[in-house]
Design brief:
It holds the Pfam family CRAL_TRIO. InterPro entries: CRAL-TRIO_dom, CRAL-TRIO_dom_sf, CRAL/TRIO_N_dom, CRAL/TRIO_N_dom_sf. By secondary structure, this protein is of the alpha/beta class. It contains 15 helices and five strands. Helix content is 45%, strand content 8%.
């Protein structure tokens, strides 16, 4: 009932824009079927997960936005205990890696569009999925440091998940791993790969429906050797390998794909969207926590806890 053929899907009918802001009736039914979502269950689960958060020492005192909590409930199909556990993983990752959630810059992140390193397509797949393309060969670590890449991934993943359509339908990723190993292999460290794997698979509240690997390379072989044992069986089954770009059109409508991947799109960079989601007021709410302590507050707290009071 909820399957759609990419070959027959039409723009404006089955194929909808990335920026929609609401769930059309068709996808409300899909959420009910696949996620067991109803208005009553959503309200009840929100109340329950807030109680869990207030009662846990790692999350008490933090104020989470409702739409952020809904993302975790949807990705866990309203299993409140699993959603709560994933939120705690998010809080833990953010505490251990504060630098990737601070000092975001439009000037840096916009390089991903200029260089075509990370791209969110302006149109969704026929089944409502967000489509993200990563083109590894376009990444030059000399002009776009790896720490800025991590911040860009935070922006792209967390900001794209503000769309209800992305929460319900998930993400399909095309990863073009063609690469200059002299530029990239040195960054395939266990710590970098673990952060990316852990952050994307175990922390970020996204449903990963398909991953398409194009153009094998030495860099990818090194990374795959390290990451593959840790991937869930579900994710492994959703990874598709392509010898060329032609077979991508077996999975994606031609109308939504860039021309260099065999599609019809010439202009696909999301300049306006990226400007909107990197304004200071929007960046202040990245991550869904209204009162996350600043670095200065954390330093004062740490100093106070380590001090000795002599009476």
């Amino acid at each position: 009932m909820l399957d759609r053929n990419p070959e027959t899907a039409k723009m404006g009918e089955e194929i909808l824009p990335f920026e929609l802001g609401y769930l059309p009736e068709y996808f409300q039914k899909k959420a009910a079927v696949e996620l067991s979502e109803t208005p009553e269950r959503k309200e009840q689960s929100l109340c329950q997960i807030k109680e869990f958060l207030r009662g846990d020492k790692n999350t008490t005192g933090l104020i989470f936005d409702d739409d952020f909590l809904i993302q975790f409930l949807r990705v866990r199909k309203y299993n409140v205990a699993k959603a709560f556990s994933q939120i705690k993983s998010y809080v833990s990752l953010r505490k251990k890696n504060p630098q990737i959630f601070l000092n975001f810059s439009y000037e840096w992140i916009v390089k991903t569009l200029y260089d075509r390193t990370i791209t969110i397509l302006p149109w969704r797949c026929q089944d409502g999925c967000t489509v993200i393309i990563v083109e590894l060969d376009n990444w030059d670590p000399q002009t776009f440091p790896v720490d800025q890449v991590k911040k860009a991934l935070v922006i792209y993943l967390l900001q794209s998940l503000r769309e209800p359509m992305s929460q319900v339908n998930g993400i399909k990723a095309i990863i073009d791993v063609k690469s200059n190993p002299l530029r990239h292999v040195r960054y395939c460290t266990p710590s970098n790969l673990h952060l990316i794997y852990h952050g994307i698979q175990e922390v970020c509240p996204s449903r990963y429906k398909e991953v398409h690997i194009v153009n094998n390379s030495l860099t990818f072989k090194a990374a795959w050797y390290i990451i593959r044992p840790f991937l869930s069986d579900k994710i492994k089954k959703r990874v598709n390998f392509h010898n060329g770009t032609e077979t991508l059109l077996n999975f994606f409508p031609k109308a939504i794909m860039p021309k260099h991947y065999g599609g019809d799109l010439e202009n696909f960079q999301m300049w306006d969207w990226l400007k909107r989601v990197t304004t200071p007021e929007i960046l202040a709410t990245v991550g869904g926590v209204q009162n996350w302590p600043s670095q200065n507050e954390k330093r004062r707290s740490s100093s106070a806890s380590n001090s000795i009071i002599i009476t």
